Amino acid sequence: MATQTVDFFAELEKREKLVASYLKTEEFKDWFYPDQIKEAVYSYVNRAGKRLRPAVLLLACGAVGGKEEEAIPAAAAVEMFHTWTLVHDDLIDNDEKRRGGYTVHTQSSLIAKQHMNYTENQAKDYGRDIAILTGDIQQGWAVSLLCDCSLKGNVKPEVTLTLIRMLESYVLNTLVSGETLDIQFAKQPIESFNPDQILDMLWRKTGALYEYSAKAGAMIGLNTTNTDDKKAVALSNFTSRCGTAFQLQDDILGIIGNEKQLGKPVGSDIREGKRTTITYYAFKNASPQQKAKLKNVLGNHEASREEINKVVQLLLELGGISETKRMAQRIIGEARPELDVLPDSHYKELLLAWADFMISRDF
Amino acid sequence: MATQTVDFFAELEKREKLVASYLKTEEFKDWFYPDQIKEAVYSYVNRAGKRLRPAVLLLACGAVGGKEEEAIPAAAAVEMFHTWTLVHDDLIDNDEKRRGGYTVHTQSSLIAKQHMNYTENQAKDYGRDIAILTGDIQQGWAVSLLCDCSLKGNVKPEVTLTLIRMLESYVLNTLVSGETLDIQFAKQPIESFNPDQILDMLWRKTGALYEYSAKAGAMIGLNTTNTDDKKAVALSNFTSRCGTAFQLQDDILGIIGNEKQLGKPVGSDIREGKRTTITYYAFKNASPQQKAKLKNVLGNHEASREEINKVVQLLLELGGISETKRMAQRIIGEARPELDVLPDSHYKELLLAWADFMISRDF
């Protein structure tokens, strides 16, 4: 587990910069109009982010012997694809903060109130509208970036088309199904869930795009349309599992993380009543009184800071956090052997370090 | 102008059926999950629609000597692309009806209230969420359909990639800019507009996708990546203008159309305060008292049926409707000569009939 060396973080940062600077290419800046749309489209891009999806796409490309520079537009594409889902999910979850700044709908709504003379309700609608349109544009941007692997690079056009179709049907539909289940679950009785259902939902929400990122990197590296290539499958099985574990860690940080480091509020998952393995295990181990207390606060939008803190304490004491942590470690443990089909290399080491980082990160 | 023969409607219907049945292919049905998402994704598809975009894409393909069957997935793609914009725009415009049924957000909200025990506010959020995710999926479906021109057909992969990039950057961004301007305009003083600004906004909202439809049909028909091909440019200039005229007719029908035939409420543009050439010309010709009356009702969400009716009367009397009608006819008149570069053919006749229909339709 001690593979997280300085080297890994330097390698991660190098790729993060490549992707960020590609997204800030002059060509794109003229695409977005009027100004409020342009600012909204770039807002999350301009903030610090982990860029774990583009990183693993590039590493997968290198791990199969491909040239990483051919995959940079695709790396930028998965980052942009992730970004539009954040913009829409933030609106759906009514979240105010993201990456240390306001979410798109909150920011646009504030501008409408402060600079456009909108009433409270008009401003709320306006914020919603700009966030919807911004995410829509970003989805299109992601697809356009993928096109450039062939239109501006040397990836065979049929490889790129295969990747676009996979992203826009299989991945997108899986991801939306996960988001829909997440919304629906929050309103269903907490007793009605088992961890398998929750893990399936998490995989849909997060694992699928990680799975795709590795597969895209490998297929570009090999310049092949063969989605069943042994190395591509191994890499995507690996990142698919890591993605689910990542989301478990995300759920943990959503309860006991540091707001400043995370850049978003802690406790909103409790107010939204998100169904997580944390609440599942805590509820399972709770006394009738503790169950009543949990039920009272989970999904209660009016819950006070004090009530939230008490529930956080309960989730810790009842083993919800520790059990979820163990589950995330187990999943990463199962993911690692997938890489056995790859020859040993610097890339393989980086991928294993990447996997450890997915669940050891505190931001 | 008398080119609208029975023949034209039969030809239109034939293509409408081809596209509708392609969209209902079994393969796609398994893509969408859970059930509420699946129903929402198909809801507008299952209702009667004009399918003017796919029709003109197929006609453009034929007009350059291409095989229409090669363009069917692309025709389905522009219809689906249009559909997702409807789903998101209906939410943005707070519209309740579309094609004779409830809009996606209204329908999902009703289900949440009636079958899921949601409160009024929870149901409203849920309707919003399902509509956002449904439009997102439909955008991806549109792109996937385009991919199939090459992955399942004989269009060169680089042609399809060129078309995907054009749709997902140029067309999408133009369209969203039009929608954003439309939203922003509605809150700005009615005196601050001129018809050119309104026509530019309408072209962005509607003309750009019509322009694209013809260009895509022609490029597929010629199997070329050359976006500057003379015939492709002529056809897309033609449909680009027709698209703006179509939207002028849409604005007219939004004021004096028949609700039942239209499948959506008449008068909501007045309540939303949409800036149209109709309101522009009426306002220009109005007395100070009439101006005050118009200002009082345009953009007033609480306006009564009677107030709306009086404004409709004013818009008619002050020449807003007739002036807009003339403008639409003038634009179609300017569009027609674009087709002179094409040899005479059955397709060319159908395209000219299609142009007339764009502004003579009453639904």
Describe the overall structure.
Two copies of one chain form a homodimer. With 363 residues, chain A is mainly alpha-helical. Chain A has 17 helices and two strands. In chain A, a hairpin with a 2-residue loop joins strand 1 (97-98) and strand 2 (101-102). In chain A, helix 4 (52-63) packs across helix 9 (195-222), helix 5 (72-92) packs antiparallel against helix 9 (195-222) and helix 8 (157-185) runs antiparallel to helix 9. Chain A starts with 5 loop residues before the first helix and ends with a helix.
Gap from first CA to last CA of chain A: 19 Å
- Low-pLDDT windows of residues of chain A: none
The averaged pLDDT of chain A comes out at 95
Number of strands of chain A: 2
Reported CATH architecture of chain A? Orthogonal Bundle
Q: What Rg of chain A, in angstroms, do the CA atoms define?
A: 21 Å
- Given helix and strand content, the structural type of chain A is mainly alpha
Biggest chain pair contact, residues each?
A: A-B, 56 and 56 residues
Q: Roughly how much helix do the residues of chain A carry, as a percent range? A: over 70%
- Overall geometry of chain A: globular
Going by CATH, what is the homologous superfamily of chain A? Farnesyl Diphosphate Synthase
| Distinct helical segment count of chain A | 17
The largest β sheet of chain A comes out as:
2 strands, antiparallel
Oligomer: homodimer
